[in-house]
Amino acid sequence: GTARPASIPASVKGWNAIASLANMPPDFAVVMDNFIPRPGYLEVRRGSQSFASGCGTATTPVQTVMGYNAPNTANSKLFAAANTTIYDITAGATASATSITSLSTSRLQYENFTNSSLTSYLIAANGVDAALIYNGTAWSALSVTGIKTSKIIQPKVWKGRLWFCLVNSTQVAYLPVGAIAGTAATFDLGPLMSRGGFVNAIATWTVDTKQSVDEYIAFISSQGQVFVYQGTDPS
User: Fold this and answer.
1) Which of 58, 190, 70, 202 is nearest to 125 (CA)?
2) Which pTM value belongs to this model?
3) Of 116, 184, 178, 193, which Cα lies nearest the Cα of 149?
4) What is the DSSP string of 34-56?
5) What gap in Å lies between CA 22 and CA 71, rounded to an integer?
6) What angle (nearest 5°) sits at the alpha carbon of residue 228, between those of residues 222 and 231?
7) Is residue 113 within 8 Å of 121, Cβ to Cβ?
8) SS3 at position 75
9) Which of 8, 60, 91, 106 is most exposed by smallest CB count within 10 Å?
């Protein structure tokens, strides 16, 4: 036979796992390892490098990386949670353990919050251990009553308040405006949850009507329902 040169386009449309191989358009890929499709070309996936050591192993990997973003960036911190411990990895190199060394799980959800006294905090929770707060210098237990802070799975900031998603509950909790401690009130979404289940997550949603911009808070249930609250005072 005679060899004939042919031009085959790059797989810029990405990986196709639906079309049959016989009918696969040439600008799709059957396998796409270590390439990222871009408009008109393929980009080779970049590698990685170690930033900090001593904070995880193959069996106890880092499960959470948390940034504490202070107004003065020189005071900002980077933390990693692994092997039941929170480590300070701000400087890279060798990680240093903080005072938090006995977590039940290193998978945390966290939120930055600046309170009414203009102090910045990092709040973290895992739904098993008492929720934690970092004040720029040290970690401690979150001082909130009215709920068990060990039931907090997600802290969320909305319109100057700290809100909390609770483990296996139809209730969410919130603090007064600007507060990082004190008594939490609860808000029960159970009567609205026609599919049952529990509140699984909290998110915020900014709505621009072209006449005004408002930020709503959304509560997402384990059964896929979303409840949106508009206002400023949930009480």
Assistant:
1) 202
2) 0.81
3) 184
4) SEEEETTEEEEPP-----EESS-
5) 58
6) 145
7) yes
8) helix
9) 8
The tens digit of pLDDT for each residue in 144-191 reads 999 999 999 999 999 999 999 999 999 999 999 999 999 999 999 999
In order, the DSSP letters of 83-113 are: TTEEEE-TT-EE-EE-S----S-S--EEEEE
3-class DSSP assignment, residue 151: helix
B/e letters for 25-59, b = 16+ CB within 10 Å, e = fewer, are: eeebbeeeeebebeeeebeeeeeeeeebeebbeee
Extract long-range pairs of 158-161: CB within 8 Å, 24+ residues apart: 158/202, 158/204, 158/215, 158/217, 159/215, 159/217, 159/232
Residue 70: how many CB atoms within 10 A of its CB? 17
Residues in the chain: 235
Can you tell me the distance from the alpha carbon of 235 to that of 170, in angstroms, rounded to the nearest whole number? 17
Tokens standing for 92? 């890279």
What's the pLDDT tens digit per position in 199-219? 999 999 998 887 888 899 999
